[in-house]
Amino acid sequence: DGGITQSPKYLFRKEGQNVTLSCEQNLNHDAMYWYRQDPGQGLRLIYYSQIVNDFQKGDIAEGYSVSREKKESFPLTVTSAQKNPTAFYLCASRPIQGVNVLTFGAGSRLTVL
Amino acid sequence: GEDVEQSLFLSVREGDSSVINCTYTDSSSTYLYWYKQEPGAGLQLLTYIFSNMDMKQDQRLTVLLNKKDKHLSLRIADTQTGDSAIYFCAESIGPGGYQKVTFGTGTKLQVIP
Predict the structure, then answer these.
(1) Which of A6, A101, A109, B43 could form a disulfide with B35 if both were Cys (CB 3.0 to 4.6 A apart)?
(2) A104 vs B42, B48, B104: nearest CB
(3) Euclidean distance between CA atoms B66 and A36, whole angstroms
(4) What is the number of other CB atoms lying within 10 angstroms of the CB of residue B110?
């Protein structure tokens, strides 16, 4: 079955450490997105990418980095510069053509100790 | 700029209709969406409406769009306990392949048996 796989589901890290969240899709979608979800704030866009080797900052990119070396993969690194990294992170993808409907992964919950 | 607003909480009795409201600010939106999120999971698309439509019905779901007031609503008929979840309104903005999807804060629907 086609879909988006995020890993790990739960992740704990110490302050000052970088951590990378994985997002892989086998839907042949061109565009991929990372959102952060906090209670009462909904989803906020971190980064998005429309094609391989190209990506744009979203509304809250500071303290995060991404890469898009392959169409299927869009990993997100939460760096030590991110002041409040504890959150639920959601990856999504969509085709460039047709209706702009996002398909989401199941999410990764990051907790900084 | 873009901003999508929703009330945070709605409580209804099982069997009643639920109406979840959303306002948006960007008049250039192409598509507007409703997504559902169950606890600890990613978002799943419920329905969407193209910006030149006023209404869309899909089984128990009715979407109404008032472009003049930039108001979107989702009506769920005969609400069931399985409908308890967070519902997100979202809009798609931007040209062609570089569309950006902006989400509201989410409305938590509680269905009382």
Answers:
(1) B43
(2) B42
(3) 29
(4) 13
